[in-house]
Amino acid sequence: MVDTLPSRPTAIVVGIATSGRREVLRDTLIQLDRQALRPQRILICPSADDDADWDHAASLTIAAERIKGPRGLTAQRNAILEAAGDADLIVFLDDDYLPADRFILEAERLFGQNPDVVAATGHVLADSVHGPGIGLHEALAVLAGDQPPQDGDIWPVENTYGCNMIFRMAAIRRTGARFDENLPLYGWQEDVDFCSLLAAEGRIVHATVLRGVHRAVKSGRTSGVRFGYSQIANTVYLARKGTLRRARALRLSAAPFAANIVCSLLPRGLIDRRGRLKGNLLALWDLARGRLDPRRILSLD
Question: 196: helix, coil or strand?
Answer without folding.
Answer: helix
